[in-house]
Design goal:
It holds the Pfam family LRR_6. Belongs to the LRRC42 family. InterPro entries: Leu-rich_rpt (IPR001611), LRR_dom_sf (IPR032675), LRRC42 (IPR039631). This is Leucine-rich repeat-containing protein 42. Keywords: Leucine-rich repeat, Repeat. There is one protein chain. This protein is of the alpha/beta class and about 425 residues long. Among the domains are: about 75-150, no CATH class; about 155-310, Leucine-rich repeat, LRR (right-handed beta-alpha superhelix) (Alpha-Beta Horseshoe). It has 17 helices and twelve strands. The protein has helices at about 1-15, 70, 95-105, 120-130, 140-150, 165-170, 170-175, 195-200, 220-235, 255-260, 280-290, 315-330, 335-345, 360-365, 380-385, 390-415, 420-425; strands at about 20-25, 30-35, 40, 80, 90, 160, 185, 210-215, 245, 270, 290-295, 370-375. Helix 9 (about 220-235) links the parallel strand 8 and strand 9. Helix 3 packs across helix 4 (about 120-130) and helix 9 (about 220-235) packs across helix 17 (about 420-425). The longest helix is centred in the last third of the chain and has 26 residues, at about 390-415.
């Protein structure tokens, strides 16, 4: 009784405290005292669930909160399909696909791909291209360089940037990373003599270029002099060039054509629409020194139909172009500005992409100046018709050839060994 009175007193005196259930051991058994009941109750204690948090507490499990791509990767491990009955069915991806996706997401962290099998590298490039990893400003360039260093022409063997001067300005470093290109079309880009990409043409990385189209690029004799300096002096640079298009560059004169005589492997040349003063002299000079014959009909090599972007990075170049066009769209939808110009009576400034037509006014004025190299058997056919009549013409021809040869060698010495050429070569 004294124990029950003391316990009830304790309970009533500390009723303001939430002590929870109280257990008392008596005669080897546990008894639970209910607070507020004032008595004992012989109840066997039951295990109650222990809760750390209140009912209003919420928990969110985050595996990786660096970016939203980590959340999307949770479903990338499965392939979701539907059965014939219309039920959703998913199957796990192969380990190769999972590893390929992980590496493509972190392709910019690869140290080197040299010696890696090109069959797997092509799949890795496609996976990274599908994730648009090569369009990112800094990491895209670093990732692209790893592929071009290891695989060269497999990444891109032909590049057509005709009338895409915006892509050149935005992705210049990426374009310069391509190696072992055999065809490069830069027509109608208005690059000028001092452009960084034209200087890059003389580097060793593009010594494999065989087809170079520079139509309508505001080139002059100074630009040709810079492009041909390594070939003329060091026998390096564009030494393998076979097709060259310099049409629609009015600032190129007879002096600039003289720099082209160092391209010994040149088979086709287009100088229509240039600023030549003595066309007949240029035609004879090209025929006598590098064996190029004036064509009376347009050549298929300069119709721009065969120049295409080919290689692993074909879709990458298209993504660059789409990104440039998307960046230009907001400027085309400024309706308020247009209405304001109409209100104040000002003419709207039309900004259209400059299109390069195949027939230019300069070309019509100067005529078709396309040249090709005949076969060795038919190389001197035009000359035989003139010479077949008399022996005097043959002797005059024999005397004229050494004079022209001495003139050619003297001019080559004058072109190759000037101080300006050596200063120019030191800049490469």
């Amino acid at each position: 009784q004294s124990w029950s009175r003391g316990m009830s007193y304790c309970l009533h005196s500390e009723s303001h405290l939430d002590t929870g259930p109280i257990y008392v051991r008596e005669n080897g058994k546990l008894h639970m005292v209910k607070q507020g009941a004032g008595g004992l109750q012989n109840v066997t204690p039951k295990e109650r669930p222990f809760s750390l948090f209140s009912r209003s507490f919420s928990v969110e499990l985050c595996m990786n909160r660096e970016d939203d791509r980590a959340r999307r990767q949770r479903t990338d491990h499965f392939i979701f399909t539907y059965t014939k009955e219309g039920n959703l069915r998913y199957s796990a991806k192969s380990l190769f696909s999972l590893v390929l996706g992980y590496i493509s997401d972190n392709v910019d962290h690869i140290d080197s791909l040299i010696g890696f099998p090109e069959q797997i590298a092509e799949k890795l490039f496609s996976a990274a291209e599908a994730r648009q990893k090569f369009t990112e400003p800094v990491t895209g360039l670093r990732a692209l360089q790893k592929f071009t260093e290891a695989y060269g022409s497999l990444v891109l063997c032909s590049l057509c940037l005709r009338n895409r001067y915006l892509v050149i300005s935005e992705k210049l470093e990426e374009i310069k990373s391509f190696r072992e290109l055999t065809c490069l079309d830069l027509s109608c880009c208005k690059l000028g003599d001092e452009h960084e990409l034209l200087e890059h043409l003389t580097k060793e990385a593009l010594s494999s270029v065989k087809r170079l189209l520079l139509k309508d690029n505001s080139l002059s004799d100074a630009g040709l002099r810079r492009m041909t300096a390594p070939v003329r002096v060091l026998k390096k640079g564009l030494e393998n060039l076979m097709v060259l298009d310099l049409s629609c560059n009015p600032k190129i004169t007879d002096v600039g054509i003289g720099y082209l005589l160092s391209f010994k492997k040149l088979n086709c040349l287009d100088i229509s629409g240039t600023g030549l003063k003595d066309v007949d002299a240029v035609i004879k000079r090209l025929q006598m020194q590098i064996g190029l014959v004036h064509s009376k009909v347009p050549l298929k090599e300069f119709d721009h139909s065969n120049c295409k972007t080919e290689g692993w990075a074909e879709q990458t170049v298209l993504q660059w172009e789409q990104a440039v066009m998307e960046a230009r769209k907001p400027q085309d939808k400024l309706k308020s500005r247009v209405t304001a110009l109409h209100f104040y009576g000002k003419t709207r400034r039309i900004e259209e992409v400059v299109k390069c037509t195949l027939v230019e006014p300069e070309t019509k004025a100067s005529g078709n100046l396309q040249f090709y190299k005949e076969n060795i058997q038919n190389c001197h056919l035009p000359l035989k018709k003139e010479v077949a009549g008399s022996h005097e013409l043959k002797n005059n021809k024999k005397r004229a050839l050494p004079e022209q040869e001495r003139e050619r060698t003297s001019k080559q010495k004058h072109l190759c060994l000037t101080v300006e050429d050596w200063d120019l070569l030191n800049t490469y």
